[in-house]
Amino acid sequence: MTLMTSWVESANSPDTDFPLNNLPYGVFSTNSLEPRCGVAIGDMILDMAALEEAELVTLWDEPVFDVPYWNDVMDLGPDTWEALRARLIELLSTDAPDQATVAPHLVPMGDARLHMPMVVSEYTDFYAGKHHATNVGTMFRGAENALPPNWLHIPIGYNGRASTVVVSGTDIHRPNGQLKAPDAEKPGFGPCKRLDIELEMGAIVGTSTEMGQPVTVAEADEMIFGYVLLNDWSARDIQAWEYQPLGPFQAKAFATSISPWIVTRAALEPFRTSTPEREKDLLPYLKEPGPMLYDIDLAVIIEPEGGAQEVIARTNYNEMYYSAAQQLTHHASSGCAMNAGDLLGSGTISGPEKDQRGSLLELSWGGKEPLTLQDGSERSFLEDGDTMILTGHAQGYGFKIGFGACAGKILAAIPYP
Amino acid sequence: MTLMTSWVESANSPDTDFPLNNLPYGVFSTNSLEPRCGVAIGDMILDMAALEEAELVTLWDEPVFDVPYWNDVMDLGPDTWEALRARLIELLSTDAPDQATVAPHLVPMGDARLHMPMVVSEYTDFYAGKHHATNVGTMFRGAENALPPNWLHIPIGYNGRASTVVVSGTDIHRPNGQLKAPDAEKPGFGPCKRLDIELEMGAIVGTSTEMGQPVTVAEADEMIFGYVLLNDWSARDIQAWEYQPLGPFQAKAFATSISPWIVTRAALEPFRTSTPEREKDLLPYLKEPGPMLYDIDLAVIIEPEGGAQEVIARTNYNEMYYSAAQQLTHHASSGCAMNAGDLLGSGTISGPEKDQRGSLLELSWGGKEPLTLQDGSERSFLEDGDTMILTGHAQGYGFKIGFGACAGKILAAIPYP
């Protein structure tokens, strides 16, 4: 697939995250505009609320873009999503007749503040990267028992906390919690000492299901509204002490960051790729009717306080063992109702090589092999002042489908009452 | 504390769940009324939307009772909750001057359909009953390792699924899922064979906190809007195969039932009681400044298809090792934002005796000691057609603070696509 050109000149650069091929959905505000729906195009944002008011885009009897979330658009269903994308392409392509009427509704991205693109209904995090699960399992249970017996059969997931999903750029306080060193007699309470990232993709469910209603993998794929980058901040020491027998809780509850732009399934369509060959045959309900992953290059960048940005890992979303569609099918398999705005974290994405690992836990091998940064400092886990940045894009011929950054800076723990 | 008498005669019976002392909050509809907020009094429901329209109760500039949830009232804060209760007592007590103006807004409970009393923001389930944790631990890990090492230090919890929390009376389809017998080579997919209940109380958070904001146990107690009975339906066979290493997921996601009336903290105030003596000293952040549990008698009733109701267990909420206030404090301790409408399940409530156990898993000891019902049939786990009913009340002198029933009937599994 090649670049689709736009009369918005900055959208035609091979370096922009947001060519006409992309058209991702976000929420923005400016000094004079309240938070509202917008579409990224080059270095501009199309003000969808203004476009709707000018009757240049009409999806529904009532306005759906003058609110700080895309959930209302999700509720209109896949046919409307498709119609919206077609209309946006029509308005923004090089030969668009409406250029003069649309141009006044473009806002420079530099003037805008970005917000959460949707109301997160519920957040579920999966554990579907085989390299990650193998690395973590090897560290905690030894190489012999690295993968739990269910891993090759179930896209393992757990419910996360939606109330602390925040948009890129939100500062993250180091969490407090119960900590217990393996040789300590009893736990203490204080700031986490092993604060980590998890490089993930987030799939956003756009179509709701009823309680009791299962969905096939093909149906699940069509239910997905789009994807974001996701950093599942993790307190490894809190997790180690709390997680048996019911899983991670406060170790993950303090924050999850996402990139601000929802990249639609339609934009990613040319980059579909298959999950790897199955090591054990999957149960029929999880079998994929076609390629359900995407070829998306990912990077993890660290920026120490006052220092330079430095890439510490590169990997690809195509490393996942299970796709978001498989995860969603499994999620609904018991009869669990799904809602528009549900966010599904892919699980940490690591490649087979050491510099392809999506967490510091793996990069520093549990703290035994600290990274040395360009400024000479070492990192096993995060320091206060570190900014962590995830980036990602699918590479077309002469264009990128980019996600924008998913960044967060670590601040000191809040003193406990 | 003695009975507060009302001019609604049925509220003065020692057998009603809903005397003037109680005044629990629900949502109801009738053939002619859309779902709206109501208050139970004897065998009647006070139509709060009508009362507000008649200006007999005014909490805010805008109406808050003409909606099918109490979340708007929660958002007004504890002072308003107190003022509302005082006003309701004023309107309904025996010597109320407004009897003639209020009476037309009473709806017979028999004419009403009850709905979910609130929008569940997020649902968290705990594991805070020591008898239950010991029983389950003994079955799965042996008596030596029954309690996990963290159990006496942490009110262990995990995030549940809010989208399938349903009101009493909602039928529950037996879930499908991945099942694997211990000696089977690989898993299969089909209807759960070990379907269970969990007798719990649910605490409803009424006050929101910001991300990063911890709360003391005393503050947490004041944040609680009220309590309901809660049945955390559980698929034991799905759970056994899926839960390592990240906890229960589809085994719990298909349904959670709650009783329809939110019994306020104020109504339960006379029944406060303390958590048991600590076996290990708690960390300071979890220490209670006073009694935070309640003396609430609980029962589990089974009604087989076409059969009679039969009590199979009796216990009390005062058997919990951790209170809801401690659970909420722990929940927020990492900086996790809490929201009005968050539902916290207590964990299964079992007493020390065999007939005080709050799950069939414990009552039948993993299926090894099936219960024999009055009709001669045996139960290790639930059969299709079984209706399970939880009841609970605090016993005053000549009155009860009751919760109404938390009931659900098991229907056959939905055929999988």
From TrEMBL, chains A, B:
Q: Which residues bind Ca(2+)?
A: 125, 198, 200, 232
Q: Name one GO biological process term.
A: L-phenylalanine catabolic process
| Catalytic site | 132
Domain of life, per UniProt, equals Bacteria
The UniProt keyword set, sorted, is: Calcium, Hydrolase, Magnesium, Metal-binding, Phenylalanine catabolism, Tyrosine catabolism
Q: What is its EC number?
A: 3.7.1.2
Q: Where does the chain bind substrate? A: 127, 141, 239, 243, 348
Q: What's the short name of a Pfam family annotated to this entry?
A: FAA_hydrolase_N
Q: Where is the Fumarylacetoacetase-like C-terminal domain?
A: 124-392
> What is a single molecular function from GO for this protein?
metal ion binding
Task: Specify the pathway.
Answer: Amino-acid degradation; L-phenylalanine degradation; acetoacetate and fumarate from L-phenylalanine: step 6/6
Query: Record-annotated residues binding Mg(2+)?
Result: 232, 252, 256
Its cofactor is: Mg(2+); Ca(2+)
Ranges for domain Fumarylacetoacetase N-terminal come to 21-117
Task: Please report the name of this protein according to its UniProt entry.
Answer: fumarylacetoacetase
Species name for this entry?
Sulfitobacter aestuariivivens
Q: Which gene encodes it?
A: fahA
